[in-house]
Amino acid sequence: MAIADAESSKPESPDVIALMAITQFMQGAGISVRGLRPDPQGIIEQRVREIVKPWDLSGVSPKRFNASLTTGVDIAGSSYPYTSINTQVHIAIFTLLATCFDDFLTDSDAMSEFSDRFRAGLPQRLPLLQYFADSLSSMSTYFLPFAARAIVNSALVYMNRNVFDKEASEMPIHEAARQYIEWKRLQNGMAEAYALFIWDKHSFSSIHSFIQAVPEVVLCVNYMNDILSFYKEELEGDVTNYIHERAKVTGRETNAVLFDVVNDTIEAVKRARDIVQGDAERAAVDAFVAGYTVFHVYSPRYRLLDLMKGSEYL
Question: How far is it, in rounded angstroms, from Cα 25 to Cα 226?
Fold first, then answer.
């Protein structure tokens, strides 16, 4: 739906609300994704497919695995286009595997043992988990020492939270548990990892030039995903996400919370730009914010391309 159509539709409809929120975010953050595409030459996908070709995927649906592969390629190629191809491929593999765990890997025992086995240097119980462990072990090849360790820690926390959230899927959120949902959101998206991916060690030699902006970008990673996945989740009737849980603990309407999150994200983008030291560091923030939006817009997972058809930002 084009922006011009919004006024003629019911204001409470998910398509109108989602389009208004995305437009407000892009305007406020000063970004456009016109002309941008994930992995335009297909180089990252080709490299990733070469790497995964010999993998043991027994028990994994090829269709679902390929969907995860596309997600990994798209987020790497869109969000970190200024990094080396090797770095983008590594991020793509990392994301491919994390998406598998989030979407369809159901062996909770093997997943719950992942962190302990990783720290002890023991082999994982499933091939996909071992590939993920291998990905984490090589983070220092691409990122500065502190960043590499923080990325690994973010992934381990994610694995722990992923298992717990599946076990606690029926647990009601207490109306006073505002800090719990913030803590949960911080843990369940690996936002710290995706924030630190912005500044790879081959492009940025000093962590001091960007480290203080990381908390702002962490907020951006999570909240941008909440804004850009809102439409998909409303269509699916998903009320277990951050927007709905924040509405419950704040006593505000869901749509009002969505626009609160939009405003929070715009301010975080501005703070991140102010905090980083150096034009290259700031350009990397801008490239990520635009690219992370591109990833969501062009991913079939989020159903945004038709929604935004005709938008001045595409």
Answer: 12
- Gyration radius of the chain over CA positions: 19
CATH of the domain at 97: 1.10.600.10
- Decide if 305 is inside a domain: no
- Total residue length of the chain: 314
Do the Cβ atoms of 300 and 20 come closer than 8 Å?
no
Residue 96 domain-assigned (yes or no): yes
Q: What pLDDT was estimated at residue 120? A: 97
**Which amino acid type is present at position 78?**
S
Give percent above pLDDT 70 in the chain: 95
The Cα–Cα gap between 274 and 222 comes to 20
Global pTM? 0.92
Structural domains of the chain, count: 1
131 within 8 A of 97, measured Cβ to Cβ: yes
Would 201 be classed as within a structural domain? yes
Place of tokens 């951006």: 220
| The token pair that represents 21 in the structure block | 């929120």
Estimate to the nearest angstrom the gap between the alpha carbon of 132 and the chain centroid: 17
CA angle (89, 92, 96) in 5-degree steps: 140
Distance CA 92, CA 176 (A): 38
The position carrying tokens 């996945």 is 229
Expressed as residue numbers, the domain containing 90 is: 3-298
Flag whether 268 is in a domain.
Answer: yes
